[in-house]
Amino acid sequence: MTSLLHLDSSANCSVESVSRALTALFADTWRARHGSTGYRYRDLVADPVPPLTTAYCALGRRLERHDLAPPTSVAELVETPAEQGEWAVTHPLITEVLTAGTILIGAPMYNYSVSASLKAWIDRVSFPGAFTDPHTRENLLCDTQVVVISARGGIYSAGSPREAWDFQTPYLRVYLAKQGVAQENMHFITAELTLADVAPHLAPFQSQAAHSLATARAQVIELAVMQVTETVMPNRWKTATVGFAGRGS
Amino acid sequence: MTSLLHLDSSANCSVESVSRALTALFADTWRARHGSTGYRYRDLVADPVPPLTTAYCALGRRLERHDLAPPTSVAELVETPAEQGEWAVTHPLITEVLTAGTILIGAPMYNYSVSASLKAWIDRVSFPGAFTDPHTRENLLCDTQVVVISARGGIYSAGSPREAWDFQTPYLRVYLAKQGVAQENMHFITAELTLADVAPHLAPFQSQAAHSLATARAQVIELAVMQVTETVMPNRWKTATVGFAGRGS
């Protein structure tokens, strides 16, 4: 079934949040075509993923010692009530990822990286072996589309003076690739200079900020429509890649 | 006063945690010379920093609009009880940073970056203007020593095939520099291959892992003794820098 897992991670839950506005635009466009049956929303701020515990680490290490095991077998390796509790929190989150045709991630830049809320989700779902077939070692996310909508206060795009300070989108690209997401299935859309209307020293960049936001909105709609069309068939049958990967705002 | 703020962020609170063992070794060495008066410990897992909220963002944006303000004036800009609550949580954490001569950070690599627990601390203490003198724009952390003790399951050091996947120590170096910490006051000690005794595919690297840990332990003791000697005088009067910056295990 065509499905969309929509994650937001901006601590700002007001209408001021640019990443939340853009992910909502994507989701609205997607649902206008597909309806809400395959749509799932998770607000990582309103409903935060619990921090990892020693029991989570102990269970994860046991998986590593067993050279990984399928998620459905993890329950058999649980040894304590605390580990049982950790797995009860973690397994549904992993299942959400595995069953999503497209994962939409709202990822504002906080202190040059992803927000702590998004990192808490990353740390928990990245359980040893979660996205790998234990028998074939095949990536279970090879057909998953991931749309990252990022927002940042300044300019950090490729070629800018602050490019080297961007530990947000390059990080997510590496992280997603290591989980098995194909490069051609990653789509990054970025709105920059979101603080231009707030910080006095960024006031000269307000028109550039408006242009960045308008461009991001157009890309979001175009990508959402394209996703609606393309997710009808599995990626392995696709001949063309979506053209947004790597493009800044 | 000579002082040490000790932070741990490994979700594994058992004796298995390498980063916790190494930060404890540093702290023990430091306290053996200085006593415990200037020592402060914060466990970011046992006592997690609360996630940011919309009220935190609203107060932060107001600071940005006012072109920053000294931390002591922030309370005057608070407009709601929620913002008051956010500042009541945040201000003591900022004060801890500003009053520490040395900040010791236990930073395990989780999914190629810092742990969500450490990121939650970073996101909260990095309040607009917190570490900048509002009148002179001088960095308030220019004399602060920061010791980062990192641990990671594999090999990500400079020159290794996985160097480009390291969004942990290069990230902290950029983040700390942007907060005003001088490059010569940053000290990184890293234990690698901490999963060699756990994951079967890393078993061939067990002796290399033991060497990495032994080297890290020696560096921790040497640096702690050096810190004990050097923190007697402010950094601006120092002529030599500590030689561990940037060196892997």
Question: How would you describe the overall organization of this protein?
Answer:
The structure is a homodimer of 249-residue chains. With 249 residues, chain A is an alpha/beta fold. Helices cover 41% and strands 12% of the residues of chain A. Chain A has 7 helices and 5 strands. In chain A, β4 (145-151), α6 (169-179) and β5 form a beta-alpha-beta unit. At the A-B interface, α2, α5 and α6 of A face α2, α5 and α6 of B.
List keywords for this structure.
homodimer; 249 residues; alpha/beta; 5-stranded parallel beta sheet; 5 strands; globular
Q: How would you sum up this structure in a few lines?
A:
Chain A is of the alpha/beta class.
Strand count, sense and barrel status of the largest sheet of chain A are: 5 strands, parallel
The chain-level mean pLDDT of chain A equals: 89
Termini separation of chain A (Å)? Answer: 31 Å
SS content category of chain A? alpha/beta
Strand order of the largest sheet of chain A: 2-1-3-4-5
Please state the CA-atom Rg of chain A, rounded to the nearest Å. Answer: 19 Å
The percent range for helix content of chain A is 40-55%
Multimer state: homodimer
| Most residues in contact, chain pair and counts | A-B, 44 and 44 residues
| Strand segment tally of chain A | 5
- H/I helix tally of chain A: 7
Low-confidence stretches of chain A: 232-249
What is the percentage of strand-forming residues of chain A? 5-15%
Gross geometry of chain A? globular
Order of helices and strands of chain A: EHEHHHEHEHEH
